[in-house]
Amino acid sequence: MEVSALEWGITIGATIAVLLFDVVVIARKPHEPSLRECAVALSVYVGAALAFGAFIWGYHGGDYGIEFYTGWLVEYSLSVDNLFVFIVLMSALNVPRKYQQEALMVGIILALIFRAIFIAVGYQLVENFSWVFYIFGAFLIYTAITLVRSYRSEEEEHPEENRMVNFAQRRLNVGEDYRGLTLWWKENGTRVVSPMLIVIFALGLTDIMFALDSIPAIFGITQEPYLVFTANVFALMGLRQLYFLLGGLLKRLVYLSLGLAFILAWIGVKLIVHALHEGHVIGFEIPTLASLAVIIVTLAITAVLSLRKTKNDEQVGMTTTAPPAPKPVD
User: Fold this and answer.
1) What domain count does the chain have?
2) Per DSSP, which regions of 211-299 are E strands?
3) Is residue 79, in this structure, part of any structural domain at all?
4) Is residue 196 part of a domain?
5) Is there a domain that residue 300 lies in?
6) How buried is residue 189: exposed, middle or buried, by Cβ count under 10 Å (0-12/13-18/19+)?
7) How far, CA to CA in Å, does 54 sit from each of 62, 65, 110, 270, 288?
8) pLDDT in tens, 231-249
């Protein structure tokens, strides 16, 4: 895939411009966004991703268009899973709703930085060492097994209990007030650190952990660095609005981790098959179009079964907690 320096420059410039616009708007007026505001912004970001995929399809070819759409769906579904951890983190650290946008914005910027670094490293690995696909594939399959085990044991995410986060809380003079992105100030001549700094620190650690899963996954779809980068950018854009728009619904997607486990395992197998093909051990590969179909069907089934289960659980709960019928009066 031939991508000109101008195309790279426009893409990176547009990404930075959107981020700067978001930072200026949010910093000027911290608030909890309305459902309408979130829906409009999310529609714009999703529409932009679909339009960009159409551009790739028309300008670079249908195969690359399919790779972009598939990679974007994989990264987007993994990013939605990240929201579960963000919700737990915000609640555990008592971040006021009006400042959560700022924290999420910083988290998204950190995620883009970390993923850009991981993409550069990953690209050099896959270009120079074909056997790295075996490692990526095995890692994704292991991650899938871990997700299934954590679901069965009903383990909950507690990112705020990370040792490094606890160390920072103990060593720094952390205040109790949130003042937006003002991270420290002086009180009675003593420097006080905002708890927002701890939140940002925890978000950064979380972003690194999720990048370890997402980057091998996207390289299982495409090895084109431009598509890997743009798929990650479009997956992260709109994540802030999705957090507020689907905050309650996310808790109803009880089977999401199982769906993601299946997707990661599928991509892991695809990577291993690709490595075997590159080593001339086998004569076929798993088509990207097949992976796109598997991902769409898996996400659809996961959503439908999750919503059906939570609806049934709510109905059972209402039945068991309903007050007894009054006895007839003689």
Assistant:
1) 1
2) none
3) yes
4) no
5) yes
6) exposed
7) 9, 7, 28, 25, 17
8) 989 988 878 778 777 766 6
Tokens of 33: 């966004």
Name the packing angle between helices 97-128 and 132-152 (round to 10°).
140
Instruction: Calculate ∠ Cα 98-100-102, nearest 5°.
Output: 95
| Per-residue pLDDT reduced to its tens digit, 36-92 | 888 888 888 999 999 999 999 999 999 999 999 999 998 888 887 777 777 777 777
Is residue 254 included in any domain, yes or no?
Answer: yes
Q: In this structure, are residues 53 and 234 in contact, taking their beta carbons and an 8 Å threshold?
A: no
SS3 of the chain: helix, strand, coil, percent, to 5: 75, 5, 20
| pTM as predicted | 0.79
Domain that holds residue 133: 34-96+113-153+213-309
pLDDT for 168-215, tens place per residue?
666 677 777 777 777 777 777 777 777 788 888 777 777 777 787 788
CA distance 258 to 264: 10
The packing angle between helices 97-128 and 195-219, to 10°, is 40
